[in-house]
Write a structure and sequence with these properties.
It is a single chain. Helix 3 packs antiparallel against helix 5. The chain has one domain. Strand 1 and strand 2 form a beta hairpin. The protein contains 15 helices and two strands. The radius of gyration is 22 Å and the shape is globular.
Amino acid sequence: MKRKLNFQTVLAIVIFVFLALVPLFLPMFRVTTIGKFMCFAIVAVGIDMIWGYTGILSLGHGVYFGLGAYCMAMYLSLEASGGAVPNTMYTAGVRELPAFWIPFSNPVFALAAAILIPLLLALVIGYLTFLHRIRGVYFSIISQALALIVATLLIGMPKYTGGSTGLTNFKTVFGLSLDSGYTKLGIFYVTFIVLLVIYLLCRFLVNHRIGKIFVAIRDGENRARFTGYNVAIYKVFVYCLSAAIAGIAGALFVTQVGIITPSEVGIAISIEMVMWVAIGGKGTLIGAILGTLVINGLKTGISESFPDAWSYFVALTFIVVILWLPEGIISLKDVPGKLKKKFGKSSGEPESIV
């Protein structure tokens, strides 16, 4: 166990050092792309907390990511329009700014909402499901239905959300031009710091008593309940924490990409987020980050050369990893030891049968 922890620590140092040095050897558009990957990695860490450590498989985490992004996008839209009705809403026939949009002209309120709105929604969903002991595939279906409902609502209310085209045409953030290289670099390093802090926070939690309780719930929920733990409270807590992390990631994402649409809230992106964790290695935290960076890097690289076939390559990668590396890419470190154990025995010395 100690050896495994040391390997994960070394891997984490390598990954974070690499990310910190990215702007030194890549052009700015690549830096922004990797900044987007880091936003996804933040979500993946949160999903690993609920799935890898607590055994809660959420197939609707795009909802919390999207809500955080929309909160930030509303502020950016109002800043670009000078407090007037944004263009995406004006073309939909809106001539007066809706009342609930007005507070989002304040960046502090927008940032707080990007965290609190996903957290409060997760609190309601978690309380209603976990308190009634809904778990396993039933919870996964509920989370998937939530993603479908929210995405449909966003599409069906173009006067307030921009509809299927979403919110875009952002110009500044906190008064700084989004087209400036310095602003892009600043957003990149803010995202890097947030990813590092969230990783360290989650690692702190899983290495202490509460983390051991999460694992106990994952491995035997009924046993944990019979020993006196209020399982529902712990599950609601970690689910809300994961939702808040996803909301932060969404707020950072929209400043780098410059657009948010209902497609970033729906089922497809939610399932893809789970794939990142599974491919990297669930229950490791750093594996979730590694899987996110590898899969999205592969997706970007292949789509540039094979725009019509990249999804097949990604699907094939997922199948290969699940079949031959069920513990994720991070388990590659164990392959040499397994091969040595299997083939390294001397053929001249028969095994003892005693």
